[in-house]
Amino acid sequence: ILAQVFGQAGDEAPDLDDPDRVKSLYVALAELRSASLVLAYHDRSDGGLLVTLAEMAFAGRTGVALELDGLVAAEADAAHALAALFSEELGAVLQVRRSDLPAVEEAFETAGLAAECHAIGSVNRIGRLVVRATKVGAETALAQIARLVAEAQAGKAPIQRLVDRISAVFVPIV
User: Are the C-beta atoms of residues 86 and 148 closer than 8 Å to each other?
Assistant: First the structure.
C-alpha cells in the first residue's frame, strides 16, 4: 500500500523462506488457542502491520495504541521503520490479555520464535489508531518516517509538473 501511495511498484514479492517456522507458528497458535489465550488473530499480509492493526480495530470496534519505538530497534533507520509498518512478509498479529503475555511469550520461545514475538501495543477505547514514539528528537523512528514521507511528497513526477503548469494556465481561479 505504501508503494502504491507513492506511485511505486515493488520488485520483491513476499515469500516463505523457512516452512518449518510456519509450522512452529501453527503449533504455538494451536497451543495458545486451546488454552484460550488468543482473543483475536490477523495475518500480516496485504498492506502490512499498520493495515492489519487498522482492520483488527475496525472489526473489534475499538482503537489501537501502537508503540513504534518498541517495534523497531533504536539504531534502525527510517527504511527499517517503514518496513516494519508496511512489509507484506508473512507474519501475524495476536491480541492477548496483558496478564497472559508471559504465557504467550513462553509459547513462542518454546516454538523457537522468541525473536519474532513482540508486544507492540494495546487496545484503546477511544476508537483511534494511535502511533506513539517513546523517544524524542530527530532520530526516532517516527521522525525518520516523517522525513521520508516529506521527501517523497516533495519530489513530483515529471508528468505531475506538466499537469501543474497546464492547470495553472487553464484552470480559472474561483
Answer: no
Q: How far apart are CA 129 and CA 34, in angstroms?
A: 30
- Identify whether the C-beta of residue 35 lies closer than 8 Å to the C-beta of residue 94: no
Axis crossing angle, helix 19-34 with helix 101-110, rounded to the nearest 10: 140
Bridge partners for 40 per DSSP: 95
**Rg of the chain taking only CA atoms, in angstroms:** 20
For 6-26, b/e burial (b = at least 16 CB within 10 A) is eeeeeeeeeeeeeeeeeebbe
In the chain, the percentage of residues whose pLDDT exceeds 90 is 29
Q: Cell 525473536 maps to which residue?
A: 115
What residues have CB less than 8 Å from 166, skipping those under 6 apart? none
In terms of C-beta distances under 8 Å and separation of at least 24 residues, what long-range contacts does 33-36 make, across chains too? Answer: 35/103
**What's the pTM?**
0.68
117, 105 contact by CB (below 8 A): yes
Q: Return the sign of the alpha-carbon dihedral for residues 108, 109, 113, 116.
A: positive
Give Cα 16 distance to the centre of its chain.
19
pLDDT value for 174? 40
Provide the 10 A C-beta neighbour count for residue 78: 20
